[in-house]
Protein: 3-oxoacid CoA-transferase subunit A
Organism: Enterovirga rhinocerotis
Amino acid sequence: MKKVHPDASSALAGLLKDGMTVMAGGFGLCGIPDVLIAAIRESGAKDLTVISNNAGVDGIGLGVLLETRQIRKMISSYVGENKLFAQQYLAGELEIEFNPQGTLAERIRAGGAGIPAFFTKTGYGTAIAEGKETRQFNGENYVMETGLWADLAVIHAWKGDTEGNLVYRKTARNFNPMMATAATATVAQVENLVQPGEIDPDHIITPGIFVKRLIHTPNAAKHIEQRTVRKRAA
């Protein structure tokens, strides 16, 4: 099966629909599938539920989908860098399901592993636990969290081969690998595209069986969320 597509629009053709759930990889602006997100914007698909650690920033990443009001609900951990996100939420135009960061990661991993729910101490006795089942184990209190699954996962990889085997680099490993396993269809944008056999099998993080389609993005933008510089010496 040919997995490599010439552009993002063709890679997402037939996979997008109104009201669907989309996982979007990345951490801050590191390892975000910005080319695929732009194609989702161009498609006009709306009323989306998006699962992502954060919502990008204004005008970058998922921020472009907030501009067009294509996102109905966010399942996230941290969204503090996006002013438009805050405005839409406070105006009642956007629904949010907040998660502690580790809990969000484990919910995604659990979904990919076929685990419907698990118990964690994190959030017990707080607003996070409201309406959720709680239970005691060995005298300790835990809250039940459910696994997450999406119709589509869009992810970014540093290297991949034409069979969909993927390698991630540094912070981009935080959410991309687990999201690749937790969706009905996974589409990846890959910075360095190579032929099968050119990646050491021991270095493969996401096996190609999880990846339905991919595109080559050799000049991927490296956005900086907050630029911090040292003062020049006198």
